[in-house]
Design a protein that fits this description.
The complex is a heterodimer. Helix content of chain A is 25%, strand content 26%. Chain A is of the alpha+beta class. In chain A, helix 11 packs antiparallel against helix 12. Chain B has two domains: 103 residues, Uridine Diphospho-n-acetylenolpyruvylglucosamine Reductase, domain 3; 118 residues, 2-Layer Sandwich (Enolase-like, domain 1). A five-stranded antiparallel sheet of chain B has the order 4-5-10-6-7. Chain B has a three-stranded parallel sheet with strand order 1-3-2, covered by helices on one side. Chain B has a three-stranded antiparallel sheet with strand order 11-12-13. Classes of the chains: A alpha+beta, B alpha+beta.
Amino acid sequence: MATPVRTPGGTPVRTPGGTPVRTPGRTPVRSPGHVAAHGHGGVGDSPPRPDGTLKVAGEFAYASDLWIDGMLWGATLRSPHPRARIVALDVGPALALPGVRAVLTHEDVPGSRFFGIDGTGDQPVLAIDQVRHEGEPIALVAADHPETARRALKRIAVGFEVLEPITDARAVIADPEGLRVQPLGGITRYQPVRVGDVDAARARAEVVVSGDFEVGIQDQAFLGPESGLAMPSEDGGLDLYVSTQWMHNDLKQIAPCLGLAEDEIHMTLAGVGGAFGGREDLSMQIHAGMLALHTGRPVKMSYNRHESFFGHVHRHPASMRYEYGATADGGLVYADVEIVLDGGAYTSSTLNVTGNAASLGVGPYEIPNIRIDAYGVYTNNPPCGAMRGFGAVQACFAYEAMMDKVAAACGLSPLEVRRRNAVSQGSRLATGQVIDAPAPLAEMLTRLEAIPMPPAADASDLRNLPGGVSQTTHGEGVVRGVGYGVGIKNICFSEGFDDLSTARVRLEVIGGEATALVHTAAAEVGQGLVTLEAQIARTELGVRRVTLAPADTTVGDAGSSSASRQSYMTGGAVKTACEAVRGVLLERAAARFGHHDLTLVGGTVVSREAGELASLEEVLGDAVIEETREYHHRPTQKMDPATGQGNSHTQLALCVHRAVVDVDTELGLVKVVEMAAVQDVGKILNRLSLEGQIHGGSAQGLGLALMEEIVVSGGVVRNPSFTDYLIPTILDMPPMRLDILENPDPAAPYGLRGAGEPPTLSSTPAIVAAIRDATGRALGRVPVRPEHIVA
Amino acid sequence: MDFLRPLTWADALAAKAAHPGATPIQGGTDVMVEINFDARRPEALLDLTSVPELTEHETLEDGTLRVGAGVPYARLIADLGDRLPGLAQAARTVGSPQIRNRGTAGGNLGAASPAGDCHPPLLASDAVVEAESSARGTRLIPAAEFYLGVKRNALEPDELIRAIRTAPASGPQYFSKIGTRNAMVIAVCSFAIALHPGERRVGTGVGSAAPTPRRATAAEEYLSGELDWDGRGPLPDPVARRFGELVREAAAPIDDVRGTADYRRHALAVLARRTLAWAWNDHRATREEAS
């Protein structure tokens, strides 16, 4: 066995109950250690990220950097076909290659041969007799060298009987029994929403507008491909270092497949290079575990960019039909909506993505009569699941285009028609849920209108023009357009899910200074949660020194880093645990000083009556105060399966965008000149991080509007590379003007409102509306391609 | 896979003669991508980055510029932008600053991708590729004869590209490229124009719209005859339109994941008209400045 390089993980960790939990015997190089976040900056300040310098300097240890002596390299054989029977499989030639240590198929899965993120368990660990999407894993190789593993894959002989792929989602809805992709179906979820009487309302409408809309498949395009290291432990268990979004949910899926109990697997979060939903589903976790258990050696698996396009789910493509009726003065009378989401071959998150699309299908507008039919379906197209915005993005593109159609038909400005129908606190959503926190949409639109317009482009610098330095225009054909977008997103998990978070906080004096250790299993995926955890500890405990323990499974579940929920949930858990620690501290102080009117102000214990009593350090002495707390959001309800009614959402968040574009109308090229956004976040916890989230979300929405699409033909991906799957560059993403509101949500910690996803929703429709304004084209599909503009 | 790193041009030629299957590598911006994707597995890599001759450029006695095949895009822009503006504009559209520091026009020629950005300006300016082998010495191949098919060029297995030879611009030159984002993008299609007023002639190059980069010969001939070279009068709109149509007709594009054939044809006509207008206006302005 190799000499351990770093062994902080070797210390026994105790759970709140005092039971020792097994921890790794040896720790890989470049695995996460404690992060010191010493300094100033509580809640509301903008301290720098504790991992920021390392990331900027290129020294941060990402999962792909994991290393331990003696490790093997795993590789995955994937299906080239979207639908085929496997009629022969011979691993012999691969096993015969020198340096190959294992070649495994579905027959070698130690436990359950299926897994799935939402308990559906319909996805094979390795294909069993058939493949249902391009890139489906069929076999695994472990070898001494990654190149050997790659060559071995080519020597696995697979006989396919290729079948015609099922790729038309609407055809599946028409014939779900005949076009069954897998045993579950057919249709993954059908969720209707019914409010009032649409047919009766249609007769009363003075204006009727309709449109068909499509959203292409967007990829999360995180920069750190899937990667991790699995190490067998001496007691027959497994240590897993993986870049993921939700370790405890991973564990629930991994353990049964490996035939291990959950407490026999110890997971540690390895450095995550972006997530955006794409790491909610498992990628290499079970595979690396199988290879490690089989060989008795540590096994590393790292996808390259090409494999990554097949190694995670994408945003559901959507096909949508909308019809709205309104009064002549622009008041919405009814909405008749059909939303079809193609989830690909396995369930993944399609159940909940469909629920979101249904419940938020008409956006933040008051409409008295609503009929929404939302479908998630199985096909042999690429598997789709969670991505930032999660079902709300697709609908938002359609309903915002519809608002512009109503405006045009009624002779109103886009802003006016939105204000006229805007929800506010007390309004009902399509689900009947009353918005019981501030939702000042009309005010937000008025504030957006007040933001100054950008000046005309300075055409003397090509970088300011459509096409940039590719020099397609010196100004010829360029027309400016302005468009608006509004989005509403549910924050935290919905429909009855209790997505709790857990935090353990320890306070002690180290080197003469009170120090807080914060330990959660929450995944830092780049969003800045580590910064915020330290800020909360400083605010609640009055300390300067905060250390963040590596996220692992020796502490309780933190839920997923998704649904814009970690500031709310893990922030809430850290806050609550800090309050508990503070309570114990003040009890100690009360016992010592005889005062019972104590508070902690900064780092000082203060009596209301007697004034300042002692510093934190004096009160603590040699004591260690450690408290672990779970945090739960308020309960929610499932949507009624027939009417869609129910208080299904925890919290709702709004963002509005104005996009200004210059379009080369002859060539169809677009330069987004500026985006302005107004978002209500309840409480600004860290303005720098928050602005980064709004900028980043807007950029991801810009990508969907203009360029980001996994192009699929007959179930086969045509552009699995960053050469042809384009994401915005600095010359595509314009400067932004932000107006951030703080109307607190009394139910949430600090009054905060989740902020990561809403800007991703509203930027896309705003940009497309601006292109429509410049060109007069209908543009019912995103991404908008040059062909669509000049056609 | 063998890795050969000659330190002199003579050694490089000898290595290529000894290993005709070796793939030359300069910046690696094409070759390494293909190797990483396992799209090719050459028997050897011939690393030319240590051959000093290739990174130099000079002016020959007849005034021709001789630009080493290893001069990176960044230096084409900085050192030669004034004399080879079309090539410099094309170089400026390649990748990111890091890529432009590494990538070379020689590599672009070696890869011979129809989407290579250097090809259209080399065609428009009548550039000549200087190839060399240890057995037969130097061979001069006009750019228009260099591209034989998709990623196929006229080099013999024992030949290496030594340099590009081209006259300094004698008139306005422009390069224009369509991409679906505003930087770091492969050409959907591209177009280059060079006016050669002394010869009363127009050069063109069309990129990413046929199996090889190609000249729009009929468009060149038509325009050369129509332009008011002496009077330098305004460009008649019908002439510009006809030129655009002839450029469009010179293309033989396909539908692919980057764009449709119809769009490529349409865009080429627009680019041809626009670049012609810029070039002609420059030409007219030159006279006005001179007078």
